[in-house]
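Good morning,

Attaching, inline, the backbone tokens for the sequence recovery test we're adding to the shared suite. The designed sequence is right after.
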């Protein structure tokens, strides 16, 4: 005899079982292991649920909070000049504008790739050639605009005299254009420095940077080191990352001595007799002659940072509502450096002694209630001392501090780091939400690949405030 479980005729979704085998199943325990089903599996709760007892912990990468392209150019230029003596001509101002165009292809702003990019720009004379190409493009646009206006005048001319005058002006412009084009060819040959093969342009360097950075390191004749870790296989010039970290640390402490241009011809940089007996202070003043007298290298370094739009408003909103904001430095940026920059930009940052109470720089001490309430009014800072991989650093902080009322999020400016988090499949990295800060620069092709192929989520200014259950203020939305 067969009975229906629901007591009526079988239908779609109904299972029939023999009466003889019916039995009462044992109750399933409601407690589930956290490592088996992570908190982020409850997508609605992890991403949108906000109640009276909910506290959001938003971990922001340093690049998602601070616009530091100018700072990266300063540090990368000095590091490249130290690592490749005699190969980096000019001044940092000669590279800054073109470097900003190439910065979106860099995986991390604090990595060795920035110094390697400066070396490539110097080797290919890309800065001068790029500015020359942009100048030609602007001149062409002006010429086309002028020709369009002259065509309108020619069309509207009613007398033969007016048309003849316009034809004469047209022929004169054509002769001038022919002469200028000859000058353009000579200038282009000068910028190519006698190279017979066509050098790379900036667009080609940016598009093929993943391959170019390896081949460039081999071409420059330095020893290479290959490491395999969370970032995958990374091949880099031996010691270059250490030089970059050292230069950034010296800028932050104010103890840096800027390198002089050592690419001049022999005899131009010979020291005079009195130069041999001068002290370090006098030599340092002349070395830093490109810096205004009222500005030290440290002040110049600090002023090269600026907050992204809406960052300060978001941190103030989180502080007012009892949420916690953690700024993560990532590889090469210590907590002390991040704290100095954020303080300079007007952000209320937890003091170094206070960070130890929540374990962000000196271990996990203090009570959980203190972490929940007393430490939510200031921004916390986590530097590279806690780990260069921000995804693993957030997982480690959750392991030590997560409470039932917490909702953890990571907003990062590195598509590569977010891709690694999505591809890791670890329950620890699945326990928090991760999003890409769409207001930070990145290549369009990398964005499309990360979103469609790797499943990386994107977040804008409005969604950033929605993440913690609030509406973005008009000051943020109206002035984007």
């Amino acid at each position: 005899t067969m009975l229906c479980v629901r007591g009526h005729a079988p239908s779609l979704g109904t299972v029939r079982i023999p009466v003889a085998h019916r039995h009462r199943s044992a109750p399933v325990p409601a407690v589930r292991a956290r490592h088996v089903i992570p908190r982020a599996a409850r997508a609605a709760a992890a991403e949108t649920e906000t109640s009276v007892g909910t506290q959001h912990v938003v971990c922001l990468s340093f690049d998602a909070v601070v616009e530091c392209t100018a700072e990266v150019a300063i540090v990368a230029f000095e590091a490249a000049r130290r690592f490749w003596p005699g190969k980096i001509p000019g001044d940092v101002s000669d590279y800054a504008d073109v470097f900003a165009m190439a910065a979106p292809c860099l995986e991390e702003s604090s990595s060795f790739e920035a110094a390697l990019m400066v070396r490539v720009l110097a080797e290919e004379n890309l800065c001068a050639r790029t500015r020359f190409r942009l100048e030609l493009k602007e001149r062409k646009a002006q010429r086309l605009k002028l020709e369009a206006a002259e065509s309108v005048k020619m069309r509207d001319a009613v007398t033969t005299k007016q048309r003849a005058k316009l034809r004469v002006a047209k022929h004169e412009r054509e002769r001038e254009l022919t002469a200028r084009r000859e000058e353009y060819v000579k200038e282009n040959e000068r910028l190519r420095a006698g190279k017979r093969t066509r050098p790379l342009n900036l667009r080609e360097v940016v598009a093929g940077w993943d391959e170019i950075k390896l081949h460039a390191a081999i071409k420059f004749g330095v020893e290479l080191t290959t490491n395999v870790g969370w970032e995958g296989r990374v091949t880099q010039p031996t010691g270059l990352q250490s030089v970059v970290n050292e230069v950034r640390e010296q800028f932050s402490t104010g103890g840096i001595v800027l390198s002089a241009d050592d690419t001049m011809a022999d005899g131009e940089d010979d020291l005079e007799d009195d130069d041999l007996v001068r002290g370090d202070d006098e030599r340092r003043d002349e070395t830093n002659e490109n810096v205004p007298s009222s500005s030290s290298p440290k002040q110049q370094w600090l002023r090269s940072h600026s907050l992204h739009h809406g960052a300060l408003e978001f941190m103030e909103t989180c502080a007012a509502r009892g949420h916690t904001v953690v700024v993560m430095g990532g590889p090469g940026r210590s907590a002390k450096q991040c704290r100095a920059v954020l303080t300079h930009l007007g952000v209320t940052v937890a003091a170094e002694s206070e960070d130890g109470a929540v374990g962000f720089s000196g271990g996990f001490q203090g009570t959980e209630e203190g972490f929940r309430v007393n430490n939510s009014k200031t921004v916390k800072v986590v530097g590279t001392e806690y780990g260069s991989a921000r995804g693993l650093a957030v997982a480690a902080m959750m392991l030590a501090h997560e409470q039932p009322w917490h909702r953890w999020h990571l907003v990062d400016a590195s598509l590569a780091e977010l891709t690694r988090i999505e591809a890791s499949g670890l329950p620890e990295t699945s326990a928090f939400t991760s999003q890409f800060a769409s207001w930070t620069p990145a290549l369009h092709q990398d964005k499309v690949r990360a979103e469609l192929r790797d499943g990386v989520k994107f977040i804008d200014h409005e969604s950033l405030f929605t993440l913690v259950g609030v509406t973005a203020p008009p000051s943020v939305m109206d002035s984007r």
